[in-house]
């Protein structure tokens, strides 16, 4: 059944009012008609709905059943990524969404070669949100991950809101560190939150690492190999899924 | 220290004779001179070597020390991937190499939209090998993953050479399957081998799945979400690393 992510404000009582682009998709891509069924996700729940109206401009769908959410990781994982080169952040947004990320924060690190012109940030975030939405619908996510662009200071200040905070650190991988990620996950329970900070190409500057450790972040290796910056979040999220969702 | 992958045939006694492109890299990119140190990997071992000769055409380096190999997964993982669309197989080759894949097999599945003209296969494999080599050097691999293009029959016939065989199956994810991957990894020991077969966009046809299960492959879910075809191998390899390399 086709899934549609909507804003919570689109719900009035038991009816969702869906916008033009969704109506277009239902009518012209899915060839749906009034009486057909869709799944609607509003960020808080997953609903089986029946179409009551559908034209070129809008659609309305009445909730028939609230369904259990079974496709979300039991812990909320935020990836804070030092802006990488080119369009790598788009790959991260798409793949990390498929793998269950809750929230993506992007910041300019000392060694970020790319810089985002402040004027262009809204457009860039909008594009990432579109990528995230498509990936969320395709991968059957119930939560639509959020994306923001923040200062490094804000990433640090926000750390106290998480149950645990890690930094992916390649020097730890070189030294054979092999317990921080697994120990951290073993200490988390359903409903907890995890913040993982990842550097850009070239990693973090020493001063950046010092501030992270001062703020209580633990340095974690992601296996024994040196991963590229855009591969690191995919490892973390796969490991979280494997740890919490699969049972040996 | 810079790493160079060479053919075993380039070794004579305790000296490696490196070709033109490596000599160029040492001389013009790394600005090295005779007497400098490099790491050489020949597929069987990792050696610290000292440069004895270096010009535009070639370089020779004498082995000073055999180093322990610490960056390989304890089990050998082969990914057999149904040819996906566009250049996605390049992303798989690069990222799966970073994550420790041993061998990549590519086959045309029933639902593969892309087809490879048999005449162009050598060029395509050569390009993938170049991507794999760069990723292996960057990620500190000791083994250079191999790549081949084979018939689906050959993937099935070769299955008996592996300790365990899995197929990543999205229907299993939808049904909440949650133990096959973890149980399989729990049953493997250092030195064992694992074959994971992954379908193209649209997944496997029913007849293909039937042949896999007849051949003893187990259907494994990779978490609770529906992953795109190119994300599945990255999940598997991250899970293998997490399971075997990190300790809680």
TrEMBL record, chains A, B:
Residues 18-64 form the Ribosomal RNA small subunit methyltransferase E PUA-like domain. GO terms for biological process: methylation. Residues 72-240 form the Ribosomal RNA small subunit methyltransferase E methyltransferase domain. Its main location: cytoplasm. Keywords: Cytoplasm, Methyltransferase, rRNA processing, S-adenosyl-L-methionine, Transferase. It catalyses: uridine(1498) in 16S rRNA + S-adenosyl-L-methionine = N(3)-methyluridine(1498) in 16S rRNA + S-adenosyl-L-homocysteine + H(+). Its EC number is 2.1.1.193. NCBIfam families: PRK11713.1-4, RsmE family RNA methyltransferase. PANTHER family: 16S RRNA (URACIL(1498)-N(3))-METHYLTRANSFERASE, RIBOSOMAL RNA SMALL SUBUNIT METHYLTRANSFERASE E. Specifically methylates the N3 position of the uracil ring of uridine 1498 (m3U1498) in 16S rRNA. Acts on the fully assembled 30S ribosomal subunit. This is Ribosomal RNA small subunit methyltransferase E.
């Amino acid at each position: 059944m086709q899934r549609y992510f909507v804003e919570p404000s689109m719900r009035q009582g038991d009816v969702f009012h869906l916008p033009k682009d969704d109506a277009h998709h239902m009518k012209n891509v899915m060839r749906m008609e009034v009486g057909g069924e869709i799944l609607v996700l509003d960020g808080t729940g997953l609903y089986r709905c029946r179409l009551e109206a559908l034209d070129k401009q809008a659609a309305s769908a009445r909730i028939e059943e609230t369904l259990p959410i079974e496709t979300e990781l039991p812990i909320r994982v935020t990836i804070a990524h030092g802006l990488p080169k080119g369009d790598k952040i788009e790959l991260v947004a798409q793949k990390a969404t498929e793998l269950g990320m809750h929230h993506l924060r992007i910041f300019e690190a000392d060694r970020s070669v790319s810089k985002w012109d402040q004027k262009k940030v809204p457009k860039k975030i909008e594009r990432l949100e579109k990528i995230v939405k498509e990936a969320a619908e395709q991968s059957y996510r119930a939560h639509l991950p959020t994306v923001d662009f923040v200062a490094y200071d804000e990433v640090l200040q926000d750390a106290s809101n998480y149950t645990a905070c890690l930094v992916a650190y390649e020097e730890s991988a070189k030294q054979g560190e092999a317990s921080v990620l697994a120990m951290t996950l073993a200490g988390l329970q359903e409903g907890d939150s995890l913040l993982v900070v990842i550097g850009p190409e070239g990693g973090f500057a020493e001063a950046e690492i010092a501030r992270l450790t001062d703020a209580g972040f633990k340095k974690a290796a992601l296996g024994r190999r040196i991963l590229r910056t855009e591969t690191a979040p995919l490892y973390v999220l796969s490991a979280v899924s494997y740890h919490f969702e699969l049972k040996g």
